[in-house]
Amino acid sequence: MLLAVSGASGKTGWRVVQEALSRGHQVRALARPGSELPAGLEGAELVRLELSDGPALALALSGCQALVIATGARPGIDLTGPLRVDAWAVSSQIRACEAVGVNRVVLVSSLCAGLWWHPLNLFGLILVVKRLGEQALERSSLAWTIIRPGGLGEAESDLEQQTIHYSNADQQQDGRIPRRLVAGVCLDALDTPLSQSRILEITSGTPAEAASGETLASWLANNPERPGNP
């Protein structure tokens, strides 16, 4: 498919681009005009734009079959960042998808999204705001999946030893997972119809630490309940 990935210059986004290319997809990588591009985006079509620019966003998404939203506010002194990036920009992308007929969307959110009493909320109520972005996607007409990863890690030296622990919404509150595994789950979700209309929480560890050694498809098949919106 032709897959769009927003936040492609970010630490998770560029890994989604790489994983998608490795699986044979065509990729349109969306990045902000001033962002520094990491190595590893070769082979993708790069489009620079502001996500608040509706017409430019609609043009960038035209012809795509799916979108992975990997944008996210970075901690800093600007406490409005989470609202602009994790709520307003997500809503802008949803509207553009609906306008041009991109029906399938995977959103990378965060473990504990919607939780008020959490230290991360000292940065612009980021977990509360992430839930606003999730809710905008849930209310849309799109076929959606929300991925809530735990603390994101950069290391990739032991990926083969890592086992992913999947759960439904609001079941996990701590744990970590390498960004590379998160990228893989986003692509797995696109290939798995049972992932639609689901909020999936993911962490990872060694087989002795993680409770599940299943693939996403097998875990979903064994957990068919769709719990509704938290």
Describe, in plain words, how this protein is organized in 3D:
There is one protein chain. With 230 residues, the protein is α/β, with parallel strands linked by helices. It has one domain: NAD(P)-binding Rossmann-like Domain (Rossmann fold), CATH 3.40.50.720. Helix content is 30%, strand content 22%. The chain is built from 6 helices and 10 strands; from the N terminus they run βαββαβαβαββββαβα. The protein has an 8-stranded mixed sheet, sandwiched between helices. Helix 1 (13-22) crosses helix 5 (179-190), helix 2 (54-61) crosses helix 3 and helix 3 runs parallel beside helix 4. The longest helix has 20 residues, at 81-100. The two termini are 31 Å apart.
Please give the structural blueprint.
Blueprint: E1 2-6, H1 13-22, E2 26-31, E3 45-48, H2 54-61, E4 66-69, H3 81-100, E5 104-108, H4 126-138, E6 143-149, E7 151-153, E8 163-167, E9 176-178, H5 179-190, E10 198-205, H6 216-222
Parallel strand pairs: 1-2, 1-4, 2-3, 4-5, 5-6, 6-10, 7-9
Antiparallel strand pairs: 8-10
